[in-house]
Amino acid sequence: MEVRVGIAVNNVSFGYGEASILDGINLKISEGTFSVLLGPNGAGKSTLLKVISGYLKPRSGEVLVCNQLVHSMKDKDRSRLITYVAPEYRSSFEFTVEEAVLMGRIAYSDPVIARSPRDLEAAERAMLATKIIHLRDRPVTSLSSGEQQRVQIARAICQDPAVLLLDEPTAHLDMNFELEILEILTQLVEEGRTAFAILHDVNLALRYASTLYFMKQGKFVESIHPGEISPGIIEKVYGVNARIIEDPAGDVRCVVPYSVARS
Hints:
Largest sheet: 6 strands, mixed
Radius of gyration: 19 Å
Structural class: alpha/beta
CATH architecture of the largest domain: 3-Layer(aba) Sandwich
Strand content: 25-35%
Number of strands: 12
Low-confidence stretches: none
Helix content: 25-40%
């Protein structure tokens, strides 16, 4: 059976001025999988997601999503294919939650805020999935950071893309909603979508991702399946000594850091 590629990054480099942030990145992510990008602060993770999304244009190389060249597509066509969820969003406009979620349907409608029955139904499903239906008439400016993050996830679901790019989708969420958001993403992947997310929590990545990609200083340094995690990888990427323990209840490995590695 042929494996279809959802995201392909071919020899991509990016930087600002003389500073290089991404250096010859190559990546292939299969359709219908949930992959996670990990690494220390300043590794280039957010920049890579922005390049894949089409928000940033690489200095060299190319990005394909579902076999289409991302940076050659019109904005509306690209937004039907890809959604990008930023790590934190604060609106200064008094949109209601429902209006903010409906913005995910702009790619399918001419009005600034779509209002067709199909659009409203999609927004309803997204708000129910993210448990913000009770907030639908609240202005987004009145919400907590965690609530605003769930509005962003709902907007992404409402957009109904083939590929979801998520930069810290569990930021500002408590444990309950962290797990719920990752369960929602898992369900979307099971329906055939491709998800690529940045997480800081290695243990959440080990529990939910099919593949883990580790970045450091603008390059990939490891690509593994969760069962291949080792103390050596954690030390190499983060400079931390750690133990790997088995969770007998969930058949999942966990990372327990205990000291900074000495160089």
